[in-house]
């Protein structure tokens, strides 16, 4: 069993920054794909960014140039640095991981383990 716990959410004004962290415990491997998703009520969970075993990253178009995903496999942590935040970034953010590699075609259904979420609210 893999347990993921997010931290770092909160409220910030537009243009500000937040840093989300996800700590995993249990059987996690550096070869697994790690990701961040977000969801607002009434909408599907959207993949924001992912990172693979080689630290190759992909981002949703809406966050490119503003968000940065990174990982520390020794500590089983992956993070999401969010800069230049916009009100439309307001959502519940979830970290997730899946066995094997990443793909831009993988949506939420492909991921095996999830955190409980942390709320990010950006005011204008």
Throw out a few tags for this protein.
4-stranded antiparallel β-sheet; 7-stranded mixed β-sheet; 11 strands; 124 residues; mainly beta
Describe the 3D structure:
The chain is an all-beta fold. 0% of the residues lie in helices and 51% in strands. It has strands at residues 2-7, 10-13, 18-26, 33-39, 46-51, 57-59, 67-72, 77-82, 91-98, 113-114, 118-123. Strands 2, 4, 5, 6, 9, 10 and 11 form a seven-stranded mixed β-sheet that branches. A hairpin with a 6-residue loop joins strand 4 and strand 5 (46-51). The N and C termini lie far apart (40 Å). The mean pLDDT is 94.
> Could you give the order of the helices and strands?
EEEEEEEEEEE
Low-confidence stretches: none
Question: Beta-sheet strand percentage?
Answer: over 45%
Which structural class should the secondary elements be placed in? mainly beta
Mean pLDDT: 94
**Major β-sheet, in short?**
7 strands, mixed
How many helices does DSSP assign? 0
Radius of gyration: 13 Å
Shape: globular
Distance between the termini: 40 Å
Count the strands?
Answer: 11
**Percent helix among the residues?**
under 10%
